[in-house]
Amino acid sequence: MRVIEAEDYQELSNLAADYFINKIKENPEITLGLATGGTPKGTYKKMVEDHAKHGTSYRRVTTFNLDEYVGLGSDHPNSYHQFMETHLFKDIDLPSTQKHLPNGIALDINKECIEYEQAIERSGGIDVQLLGLGSNGHIGFNEPGTAFETRTHVVELAPSTRQANARFFNHADEVPQRAITMGISTIMQSKEIVLLVSGESKHHALKELLIRQSDEGFPASVLTKHPHVTIIADRSALSGIPVNG
Ligand code: F6R
Asked: What number is the average pLDDT over the span 223-234?
């Protein structure tokens, strides 16, 4: 795993956006895996600015998001569909047929999971997957204890994850109990992974990831087994952890 140290969140966002923009320029038909949450917001903002200023085109790009809450439709303000519209999709030229998120209100949720996997496969697999890191080590919504073999599946969210995400809702009780998430094996099948880690609150998780043997008690530790992972972390997340450049 290569670790790139950024001065602060702003620099992390610039580095991550440039990384993705270069990938899109190298391969305009790239398939990207995308994440939601606080960490990638700055990255998406820079990608939107770049699209407006330099015209980087997403017309032939395909995207798959990591996850969606069960019970929230695509027009629900707290759905990840809406998050992606607000922070990225509405301001770039990505055709709607090429953006994919799990359907949180599918009648048959298990079928939805299978079809999501099939759609990823049909697109030729994910070329570069963007990830954030949960303070408990989750990636996507794969909570501690998730088997490394999992494909897209339904999960019960950990109380700490619901609490962490309550900031996006009017009330903590409104945070859904379940989500559909790409599985760990789905994530690991991406050709390349970029993990963004920002802020002091992620320091402990980042340290665990960098020192820990791979085990299912700490989902992100699976990344040590992937051949092409770049971690972009800011100084407050790293705070004293030596980096390998
Ligand atoms: C989001 C996701 C989660 C977040 C993680 C960190 O699609 O799958 O794993 O990446 O919870 O969230 P933030 O960035 O809000 O700290």
From this structure: 98
Burial of 221 per CB tally in 10 Å (0-12, 13-18, 19+): buried
Q: How many domains does the chain have?
A: 1
Minimum CA distance residue for ligand 1 atom 11 = 134
User: How far is the C-alpha of 124 from the C-alpha of 194, rounded, in Å?
Assistant: 19
Enclosing domain of residue 12? 2-199+216-225
What single-letter amino acid sits at 81?
H
In a domain, 16, yes or no: yes
Q: Is residue 140 part of a domain?
A: yes
Classify strands 192-197 and 229-234 as parallel, antiparallel or unpaired.
Answer: parallel
Task: Please name the residue whose Cα sits nearest to atom 2 of ligand 1.
Answer: 140
Mutate to test the pocket of ligand 1, among 130, 138, 146 (most ligand atoms within 8 A of CB): 138
Looking at the CA of residue 39, tell me the nearest atom of ligand 1. 14
For residue 209, which of 130, 148, 137, 131 has the smallest C-alpha distance?
Answer: 137
Distance between CA atoms of 20 and 90, rounded to whole angstroms? 18
pLDDT digits over 123-152, tens only? 999 999 999 999 999 999 999 999 999 999
